[in-house]
Structures are given as structure tokens and as C-alpha cells.
Amino acid sequence: MPRGFFITFEGLDGSGKSTQISRLAAWMKNLHEAEGSAVVVSPEISSMIAPVITRQPGGTAAGDKIRALTLDSRSSGLAPMTELALMFADRAQAIAEVIQPALDAGRVVVCDRFTDSTEAYQGGGRELGSEIVLEFHRLVCGALKPDLTLLLLPSLEASLARARRRNERVAAQTARDEGRFEREEDGFHRRVWEKYREIAGREPERVALIEGDLSIDEVHRTVATAVAKLLGLDRD
Q1: Is residue 57 reached through a cis peptide bond, with omega within 30 degrees of 0 on the bond before it?
Q2: Is the pTM of this model over 0.85?
Q3: What is the model's pLDDT at position 182?
């Protein structure tokens, strides 16, 4: 059976990743069902078109515990290297339990964050540098890299404002606190944003940079076009 496709979404919190993943999943699910679709889907692609959706940190029982620890604002005092190691522990479990089995079964995997996030947040934001992150990736992830990364980079100010509003709303409604990174100073987020741009410049064949304060529909159209190209679908 042919290997499936591995698609990741990246960007600052508040960049719209969750919304675009939901839009993409619905688009892919309905792709081969819509009459008069502009996309021609082969039987081989049709059988694997409904994506497996996961996220990092999280997506497994162990990963959800790591997510709770690393994102909770009460987790003060985590050393940058501890944070880095936890992210890759989560990633190792996700690859073994979710990502690799789905790819081996010929499925499309859509993951909210992967190693690019670690390079941006811990390598850039925490100033550990890219080299150690990429070495961890080599040791933990082997040759596994996304086939396509959709990097959403609206303005830094807009992303942070949305993320902080969302975290306050979620905390008030559920008592779940995932705002630890959003509480960092603006300089931290500027380094993350700049590291993401560095990654996009270094790997333009993999990373589709979607930049600027675009509408949800504008971003979705760009995402759908990139995914259709990856899957070998014909668009009119």
C-alpha cells in the first residue's frame, strides 16, 4: 500500500490554525461527494481522503498529559531544555501511536504543529537555537518530515490579541488554562515569528507561507489549492 500524506499546520497561537484545519477536513471529506466539483478525485485518492486529525502536544493519552503540563500557566520554572525534551517525548509517542500507523495505512494525516513549532518556540523563542532542535528531530523522528507544511503568519499583534482573548474565554468557561506561552513578553513572540519566517525561507519546497491578515475564506482557498496540488488533484 502506498504511504499516505503528512500535512502540518504551523503558526503562532491565534493565527487561525484550528479554524483552517476544520475547514480543510470538511473540504477533504466532501471533495469526492460534491456534484460538479472542480476537483477530479481518483478512486485511489478517494479511499484515503478523509484525514486523520491530530495535534501536538497532545493527541495521545501520554501527549495530553504533556500538553497539560507544558501549556498550563501554573507550570512555572520549566527550564528551556526540559520544555524541549517534553515536546519531543510527546512527538515520539504521537509518531508511534497515531502518525506512522496512519501513514502506513495510506491515510492523510493533518497535524496541528510538529517539529517546526519546537524550532520556532524553543529554538527561537527560548533561544536554544535550531541545531539542537534539528538534532532531537533526527534522533526521535528519523526521516519523518511533513510532505506539506501550511504556515499561517498573520501580523504578530493580531495573532497575540486573538490568542489571549481565546485563552481567557476558554479558562472562564472550562477552568482549563493553556495560556502559558501567551503570557511571555512580546520579544519572545517576535523571536518565534522570525524563526518561522527563517524556516519558510530555508524550505520553500515544503513550507507554504500564508502571510498577512487575510480573511478566513482567503486562507482556506490558499490551503485547499496547496493540498490539492500535493494530492495530485486537478483543479479547473
Answers
A1: yes
A2: yes
A3: 80
3-state secondary structure of 177: coil
Domain range for 53: 5-235
Give CB contacts under 8 A, 24+ apart, made by 64-69: 66/90, 67/178
Total number of domains constituting the chain: 1
Question: What are residue 149's DSSP bridge partners?
Answer: 8, 207
**Crossing angle of helices 186-202/156-174, nearest 10°?**
120
Dihedral angle computed from the Cα positions of residues 70, 76, 78 and 80, in that order, rounded to the nearest 10 degrees: 90
Encode pLDDT of 197-210 as tens digits. 999 999 999 999 99
Report the CATH number that the domain containing residue 49 is assigned in CATH. Answer: 3.40.50.300
More confident residue, 37 or 233: 233
Mean pLDDT value across residues 108-124: 98
Residue ranges of the alpha helices (H) in 32-155? 43-46, 61-71, 80-94, 100-104, 115-118, 130-141
